[in-house]
Amino acid sequence: xxxxxxxxxxxxxxxxxxxxxxxxxxxxxxxxxxxxxxxxxxxxxxxxxxxxxxxxxxxxxxxxxxxxxxxxxxxxxxxxxxxxxxxxxxxxxxxxxxxxxxxxxxxxxxxxxxxxxxxxxxxxxxxxxxxxxxxxxxxxxxxxxxxxxxxxxxxxxxxxxxxxxxxxxxxxxxxxxxxxxxxxxxxxxxxxxxxxxxxxxxxxxxxxxxxxxxxxxxxxxxxxxxxxxxxxxxxxxxxxxxxxxxxxxxxxxxxxxxxxxxxxxxxxxxxxxxxxxxxxxxxxxxxxxxxxxxxxxxxxxxxxxxxxxxxxxxxxxxxxxxxxxxxxxxxxxxxxxxxxxxxxxxxxxxxxxxxxxxxxxxxxxxxxxxxxxxxxxxxx
Length: 380
Hints:
seven-stranded antiparallel beta sheet, Diverse_Enzym_Activities
């Protein structure tokens, strides 16, 4: 009897440790060293600075960086680019906005098929062409709206004086589809206060909507398991180190006035479509939490995937992957940066990569790059 108890105890312990290993170990078939070597091969010496992070089921399995967040010899207070460097994530923000909104639909008692008309501020003048646009069409870029129009006054003018310039149902990627959520979400939460702030001034409503949007989304980041979510911001002044952005084509010729890095601007009046500052470790944790149902239940996540809400499918070596990229520049000197995430369902791995320069010496598109660095490090 004693031997049986010992055998049973060993069996339980063995099963437990095997389960732990299965959950927390890197996926069988993924060579982490090869993955990291592939990332360096694609980016080192071809961009100014870059960072990445990869998660699997809540576990950080790879992270790192190379190059400069603030380039030595070019700018003051030089700082290396690491996996914990905070920088703007550009349009990969859209995934966060979409998932956060969808997670709260049941609590609000609304659906993706509801029309946005009654949830736009009552004080806004609204062109009648928007009367049939739904939340899902905004998230899917099939609303008929066009253009960037990130800032509050631009959005209000588009809604009042321009309306739809395309056909509802036709796909057209446009930032305004997502920046509108910076007003829609606060208005759903407290429409009376939104209308009151509109009566005060444009700046009052800009600040109020940005504040409510950011706090709302931060609670979703926390639920998804993002570390340090309380320290992220849409204001570059609160992001440390203050990452600079470069034109690599100018940078590679050596230090000069034009080769110096440039600060990103305060993004709280463009948030929704872009604008968050966070690190690769933080962003990758969010995507991992999203695909492991920490934020959304399985049916809601499936809707995001099937309807392409804040993410797009792409075919990889091992099946269908999901992704979204971002990037942008500002000013007249070609300075900016880029970012991209990808989730590989067969391995349950989420990878985020970002870099702080444009006009780079890359040989692949962002999507091909992030697909290849993983596929070439994975074997069945």
